[in-house]
Design brief:
alpha+beta; three-stranded antiparallel sheet; five-stranded antiparallel sheet; 2 helices; Serine/arginine repetitive matrix protein 2; 22% strand
Length: 250
């Protein structure tokens, strides 16, 4: 018995004798590529294509010039503090010096106020012996000073503190001084160079330089920290030429 493997219509015969036709294939789109050809995409997949350059580096941070400028300012503040302190001391020394001078044997009338810390000064050669006191019934106290103080007036005459003057109330008082032997001396009433009067100068001496140095330290720390962070960020930047997805591997 023979079997017919073909028929005029190109079908195949089944065992039952009914012709079978091959399954119809859907029509292919004209743009379809045969299997094995290069894939066609509407866009390039991530990471595929020309190599990408490295991302821009972060800034290096503030310039070192900020540190240099801050420490120059600190040096200037130190100089300014010394100048203010010295100027204040010299100014107060001129104000403390006697505005007028009197010779031995003269009786001079001066206005004394306990609130102004009056003091008796002498300008004489070293070793000159002298005596001073209140005259004609005026009462007050002349007290020796344990601190040797020298001031210079606006006329350039040096004065040495001889006695602290103590009075109970403000008013006019008469004083007189004498010199032993043939010594020469001049006397006058000024103000005591008290430590409390120098508080402003001392404060300026410490506060102005202290502020400048503290500012320089803060600027130095901030600049160094920011530059260190910038270096770490730059070190973390990838140096490869491919994008973040790496080269395309199809």
């Amino acid at each position: 018995m023979s079997h017919d493997f073909g028929n005029p219509s190109g079908g195949f015969a089944s065992p039952s004798g009914t012709p079978q036709h091959p399954a119809q294939q859907p029509a292919q789109h004209p743009s379809a590529q045969p299997y094995g050809g290069a894939p066609s995409y509407g866009y390039a997949p991530p990471g595929y294509g020309a190599p990408q350059g490295p991302p821009p580096k972060a800034k290096a941070g503030p310039s070192i010039g900020w540190i240099v400028g801050a420490w120059l300012l600190a040096v200037v503040s130190v100089i300014a503090g010394i100048a203010v302190f010295a100027g204040g001391v010299l100014s107060f020394a001129e104000d403390a010096a006697p505005p007028a001078s009197y010779g031995p044997g003269e009786v001079f009338t001066v206005r004394l106020d306990p609130a102004e810390s009056p003091a008796l000064y002498v300008s004489a050669a070293q070793g000159t012996r002298f005596q001073c006191g209140f005259q004609e019934g005026t009462q007050g106290r002349l007290e020796n000073s344990s601190v040797r103080t020298t001031v210079t007036g606006s006329d350039g005459i040096p004065w040495e503190l001889a006695f602290r003057i103590g009075v109970d109330q403000a008013g006019e008082y008469k004083l007189g001084c004498s010199v032993e032997g043939e010594g020469q001396a001049r006397f006058g009433v000024g103000r005591e160079l008290a430590a409390g009067a120098l508080v402003g100068g001392v404060a300026a001496f410490f506060l102005i330089p202290g502020f400048g140095v503290l500012l320089a330290i803060v600027v130095t720390i901030v600049v160094l920290v920011k530059r260190s962070r910038a270096r770490k960020l730059n070190a973390a930047v990838p140096v490869g030429g491919w994008g973040p997805g790496g080269p395309y591997r199809g």
